[in-house]
Predict the 3D structure of the following.
Amino acid sequence: MEDFKTIASHELLMEQLSNRDWDKFWLRLMGRCAWILRKRYGVKWKNDELQSFSRDVISEVVNQIFVKGSRNWNIDHYIDFEDFIIGAIDSHINNTLNKAVKETEFDEKKTLSDEDPIGGNIEQIIIGKELKEQIFEVLQESGAKEDELFIFECLADGIVKPEEIRTTIGLSEEEFHNAWRRFKRKREIIKQKLAAK
């Protein structure tokens, strides 16, 4: 028996378009996009490149949903519109990066050179990754919110200036200040739990 999909009506989409603070929502989407790129795909781009790519992806997804109508919101699968658009952004990032990989020819000697991290000390890379994952788990266990996890990801990726972190994850100054304070309070919990492991 064939599964039927319940696709959001034009009216429901227009409701989402008009009844939303798109300035704040756009910043959250930018932060989420940066998070996906850094966490899932491990990109090490500079901030301006990361932001430019994120803007392009979000613009294209919004265009597909509201203008072209080529990306449908299946409300049986995504009850919440935000979950739908984040899923669409994630899918678009995956498609874009996979297409870029297919179109790029790799020089194997260069990729495996001593200067390249891939050709470096594999043991150090694995230890660093394991420690990062442990800290991430401890943060989640201690009730860290999404913005605190974003802050940790930025720090782990070498983005250490507060203003750079704030713009990377797309928070207002007040939101960042509150998230940073909460994150700093959890540092002692992290140290204690890691010491006990």
